[in-house]
From TrEMBL:
This is 3-hydroxy-3-methylglutaryl coenzyme A reductase. The keyword NADP applies. It catalyses: (R)-mevalonate + 2 NADP(+) + CoA = (3S)-3-hydroxy-3-methylglutaryl-CoA + 2 NADPH + 2 H(+). NCBIfam families: HMG_CoA_R_NADP (TIGR00533). GO terms for biological process: coenzyme A metabolic process; isoprenoid biosynthetic process; sterol biosynthetic process. GO terms for molecular function: hydroxymethylglutaryl-CoA reductase (NADPH) activity. Keywords: NADP, Oxidoreductase. Belongs to the HMG-CoA reductase family. Pathway: Metabolic intermediate biosynthesis; (R)-mevalonate biosynthesis; (R)-mevalonate from acetyl-CoA: step 3/3. It comes from Methanocella arvoryzae (strain DSM 22066 / NBRC 105507 / MRE50). The keyword Ligase does not apply.
Length: 408
């Protein structure tokens, strides 16, 4: 079908947006036809949205529906930052996709301080992705029966066998049951290797629930996602139990470096931090006892092809600032829930793949899971740099001046 005819049919409602690929020679032709139809329908030119570098054939099959182009987000670089991690070792340049003036400059300053102080130490303490279906039972006695069965090696072996039929990469680690009346919530925890793994664990959990429904007559599988996971929403369970890559970054900064680079004393940093991040967050009943971790997580997630909605979990971070015995600054950021991956999702888009290559984490790691854990350590280190710089700016009363200079 000629493009003009496609556009006419779209405008007249004879053709649906999702049907365009069926009548065009290529997916790129479909994108252009849809964009032309939207321009006609709205009277708005979309010339800039029409300029992009991703591979249309691949992206429109797995990453986006009803595509009309792309929105560009500026990418800046901060660093280098030295990281002394289990997986991330060496100097790294941090890609940050953002439109907030002063953010890259602030993180860059924090990177400089960290590198000068010898580098950030990082550890990934837990690595698991969760999905929590819910089922109904006939009685509390049956709920107790299911909970008891889940503790037996026999049933867990059967469940793991079901999981193995859905994925070659994922591994079920455990099942945590929760009962509310006649509803039984099963929070499955999986090792998803280098993938963030939401699709993987959803498909596996669906298969397990279908199996359990037959295993325990009278039960009913309600939904594969019950909000006990908890995905893309503020939830205490992610703070206490963790989700994704649970990562901690810490550094000890000599007091002379604090004074010369942050224009404040370690005592002043701790003073501001306590009243802002601890008392202020407690009074607000916040899950995030930090200054702006979400800023760095969002900017890195967008640059590196992660799901930006997971900034909700990523912002569940606790920043800590203490004095050592000799008056130096001991600074850390603990991030209990960092859902991220280096394969799948948006990691295959050309620009995002380049950012992952910049960090040396693109694709599957050797051993499996090592690249995703390396990325988690880099995100945690960059978040620490951002925290350090912002608290330093507030301690020296430079925050407003910095935003006036870089943000306007």
């Amino acid at each position: 079908m000629e493009r003009e005819e496609i556009v006419r049919k779209l405008v007249n409602g004879e053709l649906k947006f999702y049907q365009v690929e069926e009548v065009t020679a290529t997916r790129k032709d479909a994108v252009e036809a849809r964009r032309a139809a939207i321009e006609t329908l709205t009277g708005v030119r979309l010339d800039s949205i029409g300029h992009y570098s991703y591979d249309t054939e691949t992206v429109t099959k797995k990453n986006i529906e009803n595509a009309i182009g792309a929105v560009q987000v500026p990418v800046g670089v901060a660093g280098p930052i030295r990281i002394n991690g289990e997986y991330a070792q060496g100097n790294f340049y941090i890609p940050l996709a953002t439109t907030e003036g002063a953010l890259v400059a602030s993180v860059n300053r924090g990177c400089s301080v960290c590198t000068l102080a010898g580098g950030v130490n990082t550890v990934v303490f837990q690595d698991e992705m969760t999905r929590a279906p819910v089922m109904t039972v006939q009685s509390l006695a049956q709920a107790k029966e299911i909970m008891a069965a889940l503790k037996t090696p026999e049933l867990m072996a059967e469940i793991r066998a079901v999981v193995a039929t859905t994925t070659r990469h994922g591994e079920l680690l455990r099942v945590d049951p929760y009962v509310v009346g006649k509803s039984v919530f099963l929070r499955f925890a999986y090792d998803t290797k280098d993938a963030m793994g939401m699709n993987m664990v959803t498909i596996a959990s669906e298969a397990v629930m279908n199996f359990l429904e037959k295993k325990f007559p009278g039960t009913r599988h309600v939904t594969v996602s019950s909000n006990m996971c908890t995905d893309k929403k503020p939830a205490a369970i992610n703070v206490t139990e963790g989700r994704g890559r649970t990562t901690v970054a810490e550094i000890t900064i000599p007091k002379d470096i604090v004074a010369s680079k942050l224009k404040a004393t370690p005592e002043r940093i701790c003073y501001v931090h306590y009243r802002k991040n601890f008392l202020g967050s407690a009074r607000a009943v916040s899950f995030g006892f930090n200054s702006h971790v979400a800023n760095v997580v969002a900017a890195m997630y967008i640059a590196c092809g992660q799901d930006p909605a997971h900034v909700v979990e990523g912002s569940n971070a606790i920043t800590s600032a203490e004095l050592t015995e000799n008056g130096d600054l001991q600074f850390s950021v603990s991030m209990p829930s960092l859902p991220l991956g280096t394969v799948g999702g948006g990691t295959g888009l050309c620009t995002q793949a380049e950012c992952l290559n910049l960090l040396g984490v693109r694709g599957g790691g050797n051993p499996p899971g090592s690249n995703a854990r390396k990325l988690a350590e880099i995100v945690a280190s960059a978040s620490l740099a951002g925290e350090l710089s912002l608290i330093g700016a507030q301690a020296s009363h430079d925050l407003a001046r910095a935003h006036a200079k870089y943000g306007r």
